[in-house]
Amino acid sequence: MVSEKSGRLRFWVWAAVSGVVSAAVFLAAAELMALLVAREGSPILAVGSFVIDIVPQPFKEFAIATFGEYDKIALLVGLALAVLIASAIAGVLEYVRPPLGVIALGVAGALSVAAILTRAGAGPLAAIPPIFGALAGGTLLWFLSARLRRWAGGAAGARAEGPASVDRRLFFRVSAIAGAAAVVVGVGARALINATASSITAVRSALNLPAPRSTVTVPAGAELDIPGISPLFTPNEDFYRVDTALTVPSIDPNTWRLVIDGMVDTRVELSFDDLVGMGLDEYAITLTCVSNEVGGPLLGTAKWHGVPVRDVLARAGVQSGADMVLSRSIDGFTASTPLESLTDDGLDAILAVAMNGEPLPLEHGFPVRMVVPGLYGYVSATKWLTELKVTTFDADEAYWTPRGYSAKAPIKFSSRLDTPRTGTPVTVGRTPLAGVAWAQTVGIERVEVSIDDGDWQAATLSTPINDDTWVQWYLDWDATAGTHYVTVRAVNKAGETQIEERAPIAPDGSTGWQRSLITVR
Ligand SMILES: Nc1nc2c(c(=O)[nH]1)N[C@H]1C(S)=C(S)[C@@H](COP(=O)(O)O)O[C@H]1N2
Ligand SMILES: [Mo]
């Protein structure tokens, strides 16, 4: 004999299951429609991107600090858990107080429509997937819940055969079929949507970029041979990635256009061939993220092939009064770059099409991105570039400006110890202390090391390629047993010493000297 209470609990569990199955059908139906009519109409991605855009800054920093480059996967897992719990509740609601559960699904559909239509580049068709999904999920929940209530009613009447068992069988059969169909259709539709990305991967592989007219000269002694030091050029697959894109945009270079507009004499539209036809040159530039903590990993150096932004802007003719270029990505991200950082003759601000000898990897902005020496990425390094709007800081605002970061952000020069690392003990004896230091556009004059807060010792520098790239440094150390503090600081070619005082990454970049605890045994 089951007690009446556990009997009732059983139906609540099945009610929760009916909610989860209906939500799965909602999402799968929406993915199918997204595949057929409007890719940007996927509720999962739109709601995820919406959350990325609205979560408060401290939470974002926490996510990056905790999950690192897996922050987006963490977000999707969190979102999936929230959907699971909410849909189970909707199932129970529909069971005890119909039509509250169906109404909840309708609200979820309406919120998805809002999240989708407020995203950059979403047409009205993009509302179809969530509406279709909500209709499919809502209908299923209504049906399953009605079967469940009749089955429960029949079971309470203690009839073994008859209508109750018909409802029970229908409930299970329809739940199982709908659940399985949702998984197959949802996963299949997502896979097909992702296949677009792989077709762009194929286009990228087949792309034959002309050789650059000039190449970077790497002087002898530019790269130190010390195990554990950052290589002079960061391989593309090891290059840090930071962006707000939940899925990597897939842009076909054959249909890509760059629009130069705003305060210009003539609005200009360039195709990929137009841009490449202007002639490519090679530039070595170190990119740095404002989110890089002292001693952190969020920077890298590459050889970029590209065209000076100044030449591209000249085609449109910049009008007087402008002081900023708002660069826009296909996904709506924008960066505000001071006009003079792009037009000054001595600065190599470029539109890059290649990174370390190959077309830009998709995650790094294929087919065209900006690279500006001396400015943090969020105010300059727009990936998947589609527009350069010549404007003013008074008139326009970039993505991160209302989110707690400065509109202008030159890189604060800094230095890092790469080896040895805290937590990786070294053996007693001679050990090189080594790392990198960067002061883009100014150059590094000197790197100094202090062991156990003793005198500052000058490290040996690698021969710099130019002032826009980092230099490597090392200092031979006679490591004695025990624990030691190693502190590093740089001096730039303007004679300034790296700022000692600690500052957080917001609003315009961290400062401080890296002080590492090294164990020797
Ligand atoms: N479209 C787009 N471009 C972007 C970003 C972004 O979020 N979206 N992030 C910027 C930031 S914060 C940095 S630090 C650099 C990082 O470039 P990477 O991912 O190629 O290293 O890209 C910049 N360009
Ligand atoms: Mo960044």
Automatic annotation (TrEMBL):
Gene3D superfamilies: 2.60.40.650, Oxidoreductase, molybdopterin-binding domain
InterPro entries given in the database record: Ig_E-set, OxRdtase_Mopterin-bd_dom, OxRdtase_Mopterin-bd_sf
Alphabetical keyword list: Membrane, Transmembrane, Transmembrane helix
Spans through the membrane: 12-38, 73-93, 100-120, 126-144, 170-193
SUPFAM superfamilies: E set domains, Oxidoreductase molybdopterin-binding domain
Superkingdom of source: Bacteria
Ranges for domain Oxidoreductase molybdopterin-binding: 246-397
PANTHER family: SULFITE OXIDASE, MITOCHONDRIAL, SULFITE REDUCTASE
Protein name (database record): Sulfite oxidase
